[in-house]
Amino acid sequence: KLRKKAGLVPTDDVKVEYRVLSDPDNIGLSDVFQTQAAAFEKMLRRPIEKQDSVPAEGEKEENLIIEEEQEVQKATFALRLLRL
Question: Global pTM?
């Protein structure tokens, strides 16, 4: 859905990153990204990576295509698509 929202086509090669923003009920969202990495890679046709650093407020990232927050139960995470 995020690829479509960004106007990408299936052949566009992008990097997918995630960042867990909150997990107040400790549902183990970070663990899910790690333990299900193979399933995500099969579905996305490329690995999903943990976002290493957070840009400073107001700082624009050149390779960033789109970023969106998602919620599962009460846990929140950000997904980002970046140009390779």
Answer: 0.83
